[in-house]
C-alpha cells in the first residue's frame, strides 16, 4: 500500500512539473514573440507610415509615391539598380558554377587554397573592392598608368559608373554564390552518370541532362542571393558609382543629404519590394524541392582525365590570380607612401589621427560592436531556435516566431537602419534612449544577420535525437540542465559558426548602421567611405586591411577550435 501511494505521489508530481513546464514555455514563447514583433514588425510599420506623411507629419496618402513616379532621377535609379543586379546575377552564376565544378568534379591539387581564395572577399568590406578597382583601373591605377604606361583615354575602363559597380558587385557576391553552388554539386548520385555512360552520352549531354537538373534549386538560390545582395548594396556604388545613382545611394541622399524623411521611406520601400519578392520566390522553390539523393545513392566518382584537369587548373589559376590581384592591390597600397608616384614602403598609412577617421577609435568601436553582436546574437538566436524547435504544442505561436525569425533575410540593411530611425526616434517610444548608442548598433546588426544563424541553429537542432529531452523528462531532469549539459555541447560547432558569422559580418557591414551611429561612435566600415571621400585613400586601404586581418584571425581561430572538437568527438565515438 505504501509503495502504491509513493508511486502515485511521484506520478502526480511529474504531471504537475509537466503542466508547469508547458506554462513556462507558453510565457517564454509569448515573450520571444513580443520581442520579435517589437524589433521587426513595429519598425517596419513606422517606415511604411512615414511614406504616407509629409515633412510635417501630416497624412498625404499616396502623394509621396506619386511624386516618386514623377521624378525621372528616382525612376532612373530604380532602373540602374535593376540593371546592375540582373547583370551581376547573369555573370556570377556561370563563374561560381565553373569554380564549384572544378573543386567537386575534378581531382586537381590545391583545392583548399583555391577555396580559401574564393572565400577571401567575404572578410572584406564591399568598399574595399571598390578601392581595389580604383588602385588598379582608376585615373592613377596600376593598369592605367603603370604596366603599360599612360593608356590613351579611349582604352581605359570607364570605372566610375555602371562598369565599376558591376565589377565590384561581381567580386562581392561571388563567394556566396560559390558556396551555394559547391554545396549543390557535392550532392550527387553517380548511378545516373553510369547509366548515361552506358548509353554513350557525351560530357555536354550529361552536364545538360543530369548535372544542371540536379542543382536547379541551388541555381535558383544563387540567383536570389546575387540579385538581392547587389540590389541592396551601398558600399560599392558609394566608392565607384560616380554619377551613376542607384536606390541604395538614393536612400542615403534623401535621408542624410536632403533630410527628406518621407521620400527616404518611399525609396526604402522600393528597395525592399524586389528583395522581398526574390525571398518569397526562393521560399516557394525550396518547399517544392525533393530529395535528390536517397539511401541507395552512390557518391560521385572522379575519374582521371588530364585534358579536363588542364582546363580546371587554367580556370582556377585565372580565378586565383584575379582574387590575389584585387585583394593584393589594396594591401600593397596600404603600405606605400604615395600611390603610384612613391612606392617605397611605410607604416604611416596606419596612423589615422590625421585622416578623416580621427584615430583608431572607429576600429575599436567596430571590434566592440562586433564582439557584442556575436556574443549576444549567438546566445539569443540559439536559445530562440531551441525554444521554437523543442517546445511541444503551441504550434501557432512557434510558426509565428519562426516566420519572424526568417523575415529579416528579406530586409535590406539600409531598410532596417531606416526603419530603426523612425521607430526609435518617435517621441512616444520608451526605447528612444537607445538611439545613437552602441546598443542600437548591436541590435541592428543582430536583426540584419539574424536569419542565417537562426537557420543554422534550427538545422542543427533538427538533426539531434529528440530522445534526449524525453529521457530527461522521464528522469525528472530540468530542461535547463539538459540544454546546457547535452544540447549545447553537441551543437558547439554550429554555435561557433554562428559566432564567427555574426562577428565577421558586423565588422564589414555599413548599410544597417550608416544611419544609426552617433558622433562619438564612428565605425571602421563607415570611416573607410569617409576617408575615401576626403582623399585619404591610402588610410582607407589601411583600415580595410586591418578589418580583413582581424576577420581572418577570427576565422582561423574557429577552424582550430572546430578541428579540436572533431577530434574529441571522434575519440568519444571510438569508446
Would you kindly provide a written description of the structure presented here, covering whatever features stand out?
The chain is an all-alpha fold. It is 72% helix and 1% strand. It has 24 helices and 2 strands. The chain has helices at 2-50, 63-69, 72-105, 111-119, 126-137, 142-146, 162-186, 190-198, 203-214, 216-232, 235-240, 247-257, 261-288, 306-334, 361-390, 395-406, 413-424, 438-448, 451-462, 467-474, 479-490, 492-508, 524-533, 537-574; strands spanning 336-338, 342-345. It has a two-stranded antiparallel sheet. α19 (451-462) packs antiparallel against α22 (492-508). The longest helix has 49 residues, at 2-50. The protein is globular, with a radius of gyration of 26 Å. The model is unreliable at 1-9 (pLDDT under 50).
Summarize the structure.
The protein is 72% helix and 1% strand.
* Strand-residue proportion: under 5%
* Helix/strand class: mainly alpha
Instruction: Write down the secondary-structure element order.
Output: HHHHHHHHHHHHHHEEHHHHHHHHHH
Spatial order of the strands in the main sheet? Answer: 1-2
Quaternary state reads single chain
Counting H and I runs of at least 4 residues, what is the number of helices?
Answer: 24
Shape descriptor reads: globular
pLDDT < 50 runs, ≥5 residues:
1-9
DSSP helix fraction: over 70%
Topology:
Layout: H1 2-50, H2 63-69, H3 72-105, H4 111-119, H5 126-137, H6 142-146, H7 162-186, H8 190-198, H9 203-214, H10 216-232, H11 235-240, H12 247-257, H13 261-288, H14 306-334, E1 336-338, E2 342-345, H15 361-390, H16 395-406, H17 413-424, H18 438-448, H19 451-462, H20 467-474, H21 479-490, H22 492-508, H23 524-533, H24 537-574
Antiparallel strand pairs: 1-2
Amino acid at each position: 500500500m505504501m509503495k502504491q501511494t509513493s508511486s502515485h505521489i511521484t506520478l502526480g508530481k511529474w504531471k504537475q512539473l509537466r503542466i508547469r513546464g508547458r506554462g513556462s514555455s507558453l510565457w517564454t514563447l509569448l515573450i520571444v514573440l513580443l520581442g520579435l514583433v517589437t524589433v521587426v514588425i513595429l519598425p517596419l510599420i513606422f517606415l511604411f507610415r512615414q511614406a504616407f506623411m509629409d515633412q510635417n507629419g501630416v497624412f498625404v496618402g499616396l502623394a509621396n509615391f506619386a511624386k516618386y513616379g514623377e521624378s525621372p532621377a528616382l525612376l532612373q535609379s530604380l532602373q540602374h539598380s535593376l540593371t546592375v543586379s540582373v547583370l551581376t546575377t547573369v555573370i556570377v552564376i556561370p563563374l561560381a558554377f565553373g569554380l564549384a565544378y572544378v573543386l567537386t568534379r575534378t581531382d586537381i591539387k590545391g583545392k583548399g587554397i583555391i577555396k580559401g581564395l574564393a572565400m577571401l572577399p567575404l572578410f572584406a568590406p564591399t568598399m574595399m573592392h571598390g578601392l581595389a578597382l580604383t588602385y588598379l583601373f582608376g585615373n592613377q591605377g596600376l593598369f592605367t598608368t603603370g604596366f603599360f604606361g599612360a593608356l590613351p583615354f579611349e582604352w581605359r575602363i570607364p570605372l566610375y559608373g555602371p562598369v565599376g559597380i558591376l565589377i565590384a558587385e561581381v567580386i562581392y557576391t561571388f563567394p556566396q554564390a560559390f558556396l551555394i553552388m559547391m554545396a549543390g554539386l557535392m550532392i550527387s548520385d553517380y548511378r545516373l552518370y553510369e547509366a548515361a555512360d552506358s548509353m554513350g552520352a557525351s560530357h555536354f549531354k550529361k552536364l545538360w541532362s543530369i548535372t544542371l537538373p540536379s542543382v536547379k534549386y541551388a541555381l535558383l538560390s544563387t540567383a536570389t542571393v546575387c540579385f538581392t545582395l547587389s540590389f541592396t548594396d551601398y558600399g560599392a556604388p558609394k566608392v565607384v558609382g560616380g554619377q551613376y545613382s542607384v536606390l541604395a545611394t538614393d536612400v542615403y541622399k534623401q535621408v542624410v543629404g536632403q533630410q527628406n524623411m518621407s521620400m527616404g521611406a518611399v525609396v526604402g520601400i522600393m528597395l525592399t519590394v524586389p528583395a522581398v519578392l526574390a525571398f518569397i520566390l526562393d521560399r516557394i522553390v525550396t518547399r517544392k524541392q525533393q530529395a535528390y539523393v536517397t539511401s541507395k545513392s552512390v557518391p560521385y566518382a572522379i575519374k582521371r582525365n588530364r585534358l579536363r584537369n588542364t582546363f580546371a587548373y587554367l580556370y582556377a589559376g585565372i580565378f586565383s590570380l584575379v582574387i590575389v590581384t584585387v585583394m593584393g592591390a589594396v594591401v600593397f597600397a596600404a603600405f606605400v607612401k604615395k600611390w603610384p608616384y612613391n612606392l617605397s614602403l611605410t607604416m604611416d598609412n596606419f596612423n589615422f589621427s590625421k585622416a578623416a577617421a580621427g584615430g583608431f577609435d572607429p576600429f575599436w568601436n567596430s571590434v566592440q560592436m562586433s564582439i557584442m553582436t556575436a556574443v549576444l546574437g549567438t546566445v539569443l538566436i540559439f536559445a530562440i531556435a531551441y525554444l521554437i524547435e523543442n517546445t511541444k504544442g503551441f504550434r501557432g505561436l512557434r510558426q509565428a516566431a519562426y516566420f519572424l525569425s526568417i523575415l529579416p533575410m528579406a530586409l535590406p540593411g539600409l531598410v532596417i537602419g531606416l526603419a530603426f530611425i523612425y521607430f526609435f526616434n518617435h517621441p512616444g517610444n520608451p526605447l528612444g534612449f537607445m538611439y545613437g548608442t552602441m546598443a542600437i548598433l548591436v541590435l541592428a546588426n543582430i536583426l540584419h544577420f539574424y536569419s542565417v544563424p537562426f537557420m543554422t541553429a534550427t538545422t542543427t537542432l533538427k538533426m539531434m535525437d529528440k530522445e534526449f529531452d524525453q529521457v530527461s523528462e522521464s528522469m525528472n531532469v530540468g530542461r535547463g540542465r539538459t540544454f546546457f549539459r547535452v544540447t549545447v555541447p553537441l551543437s558547439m560547432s554550429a554555435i561557433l559558426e554562428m559566432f564567427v558569422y555574426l562577428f565577421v559580418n558586423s565588422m564589414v557591414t555599413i548599410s544597417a548602421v550608416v544611419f544609426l551611429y552617433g558622433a562619438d561612435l564612428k565605425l571602421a566600415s563607415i570611416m573607410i567611405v569617409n576617408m575615401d571621400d576626403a582623399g585619404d585613400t591610402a588610410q582607407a586601404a589601411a583600415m580595410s586591411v586591418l578589418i580583413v586581418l582581424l576577420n581572418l584571425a577570427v576565422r582561423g581561430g574557429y577552424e582550430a577550435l572546430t578541428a579540436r572538437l572533431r577530434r574529441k568527438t571522434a575519440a568519444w565515438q571510438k569508446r
